[in-house]
Design a protein that fits this description.
Strand order of the largest sheet: 1-2-3-4-5-6-9
Largest sheet: 7 strands, parallel, barrel
CATH superfamily: Glycoside hydrolase/deacetylase
Radius of gyration: 17 Å
CATH architecture: Alpha-Beta Barrel
Order of helices and strands: EHEHEHEHHEHEHEEEHE
Strand content: 15-25%
Distance between the termini: 26 Å
Number of strands: 10
Length: about 260
């Protein structure tokens, strides 16, 4: 039986500002990437998200980001490898405190936004993030774009890595994601996004795009598929996606950590 993880970025509200439908989405996923206060989230939201994930038996991961609350972590910033190592540790430590109080442990780490995309290609940055994860807890799983510098750095650091794919993002011929700035980069149609997820989970391939036209396919190994929690229809999408995977004979479960 094929096994796939469904992960979702969670806990991205802070103060009086609200984002996402975490309570409605949580029941349909297997891994939650919790914002740690740098791109979104705050201490109260981190705590409530960890509690919610714990109640649903969802694996808790740190969604580490660049310190860019105003830009939601989607603006590139120059950070040295030393700084990347430190900012990763800082956020891991903050989230672990809330997990520990709930009798839980952190399960994985997934960079967010610009940090994620920078580490896809920047080997030194990827190595710094992977090194921080290893130094904090070598049992943690590092999530990264399938076939990227980030997953290679994680494997080289001795970590278990989860190759991630996206149900609702278009892919380019080299396996990278189409930039959000381009028209059609985000798949809004739920049926189309679910079909892409099934193609990835069952056949290990994804259609690639040039402009608005499909121009081929890319082999794509995926351990986890991302569900974007900031979609307007996030809960309906997550439910449809999980039900379609299960109906196709796919087991939805978080990746297994290395014992220790």
């Amino acid at each position: 039986m094929a096994i796939i993880d469904l992960n979702c970025d969670m806990g991205e509200s802070f103060g009086a500002w609200r984002m996402g439908a975490d309570a409605d989405v949580m029941q349909w996923i297997s891994s939650a990437n919790v914002a740690c206060g740098f791109h979104a989230g705050d201490f109260a939201t981190m705590q409530s998200t960890v509690i919610l994930a714990s109640r649903h038996g969802v694996a808790i991961g740190a969604h580490v980001a660049l310190p860019d609350l105003q830009g939601f972590g989607r603006r590139e910033m120059h950070v040295t490898p030393v700084e990347a190592h430190a900012l990763t540790l800082y956020q891991l430590g903050a989230l672990e405190a809330f997990a520990r109080v709930q009798g839980q442990r952190l399960h994985h780490v997934k960079p967010h936004g610009a940090l994620y995309h920078m580490a896809v290609k920047d080997a030194k940055l990827a190595e710094a993030i992977a090194g921080a994860v290893r130094d904090f807890d070598a049992r943690l799983i590092l999530f990264g774009l399938a076939g990227s510098a980030l997953t290679r750095a994680g494997a080289n650091a001795g970590l278990v890595v989860a190759n991630e794919a996206f149900a609702d993002r278009r892919y380019l011929a080299d396996g990278s994601l189409m930039p959000r700035s381009e028209a059609g980069a985000v798949i809004d149609d739920v049926d189309v996004a679910v079909a892409q997820a099934l193609q990835i989970a069952l056949h290990g391939r994804v259609d690639t795009w040039r402009g608005n036209a499909a121009d081929g396919a890319h082999v794509l190994r995926a351990d986890s598929i991302c569900v974007h929690g900031d979609r307007r229809d996030a809960a309906r999408f997550a439910q449809r996606l999980r039900e379609a995977l299960v109906a196709a004979g796919v087991r939805v479960a978080a990746p297994a950590q290395r014992p220790g």
